[in-house]
Every structure is written in structure tokens, then in C-alpha cells.
Amino acid sequence: MKFKKVFLCLMSLLLIFSTVVLGEEINKIEVIEKSIEENTDKYEIKVKYPIIQGGEKEITDKINKTIEDYTLSWINDIKLLGEEYSKEYEKAGKEMPKMEAYSLFEAFNTDEVISLPVSYYQYTGGAHGLTTKVSYNYNLKTGKELKLKDLFKKGFDYKCIIDKKVKEDIEKEKELYFDNGALFKGVNENQAYYLNRDGIIVYFQQYEIAPYSSGIREFKIPYGEFEEGLIYKLGN
Hints:
By secondary structure, the protein is α+β, with helices and mostly antiparallel strands. The protein folds into two domains: 1-146, Heat Shock Protein 90, CATH 3.30.565.40; 147-236, Alpha-Beta Complex (Actin, Chain A, domain 4). Helices cover 31% and strands 29% of the residues. It has three helices and nine strands. Strands 1, 2, 3, 4, 5 and 6 form a six-stranded mixed β-sheet that branches. A three-stranded antiparallel β-sheet has the order 7-8-9, with helices on one face. Mean pLDDT is 89; it is low at 12-27.
């Protein structure tokens, strides 16, 4: 499958990048890679997800459990689907396509905040697979999960800044979006996002504002755009 090859190529590149980042100990926090690989006649699983070492153990254990619980549940769902489909295909006298599950992740942290976006790809039959991005964003001091609004001082109009950037980027490539981008109505407090060294990246899942062929749409807003509105020191 062409998409699978592209996904695996991207995985390799990001893992090379991650190896450099994960090998560094930043503020006594280190993110390591945990792998799960299984290959049967019904499914192939090559999953890599982040585990935090160091910091406040009670807090990092809680974050690790959240990530691991989601990942293992996702894998289990694909396995169960494989068993279910296997019976249906056998009854129909047809050969079942092998289920596939792959994942990759990135990591960014400061002494107060950690952001771990994980991309989960699954193929369960049909014309193509589906990728879902899940971002684990936490305050390392309190263990609180950070929504987008939690990054900013009370009363700061971060939505206006982000909306402006998203609309500008959509306008440059309107043909990639449903209704030329008309589905985007603005970000909300539960907007999906992650952080890296350069800025805040808000994103939209496949089919959310654009067709499958356009992939997950991401929009980066440099930290400098928010000036004094940020609660945390995130940029250089």
C-alpha cells in the first residue's frame, strides 16, 4: 500500500529525530520509547509510544498510565476486529486483508510542561487506512492535563490570534479543504494541539475540515505571536 510506505518512511524520519531529542535529559525528564511488535496471519502491529522517566514519580506515572492505557486499548480493539472479520471472511469464503497498526511520536518538554503527540495509524480493510493524532499535554509540576486555554493568562484573546493564522494558511491552499475552508469556524477551548520548540501547533483530524487526501491539517503559531499572553516559558 502506497500510504503504508509513506507512513513508515515518515515514521523512520521522525524516530531518527526523536532519538536525538529523547537521548537528552532535559530538566531531569527523559522520554524513552516503548515498542510493541506482533505479526500474525490476522494483524501486524508495530507500535512505538512514549514513556516518561524522571521528574515527580507520582505525576509521571499517572501520565505514562494514561498514554499506555489508550495505546493498549487501541491495539486490543484492532485485534478484536481482526478476529471478528476473520470469521466473516471465512464464512464468505474470501481472504481477509491483514489488519495493520503503526504509531510514531514526538516529544517536547520544559521544566514545567511536556507535550507528546502520538500518531496512530490503522488499516482495517477498505481503500485506505486512517491516522488519528492524540496529544498528551501536561503540567509536570501538578500533573494537570493542559487544554489549549490553560496555556494562556486569563482574559488573553488567544483564539483571535490562532484563528487569524489558521484562516491565512487555509486561504493559501483553499483547494485542500472542504468548501474551500468554510468549515473552519474558529478554535475552541478543547482544540487539539501540541507543542514543539518553535510554537503551538493546532491540528484537525482527517475528514474534520478537509478530505482524506489532505491528511491531518496542522497550523503552527510561533510563540512570539502571543507575546506576554503565555503563562509558561515555552520558546527560546
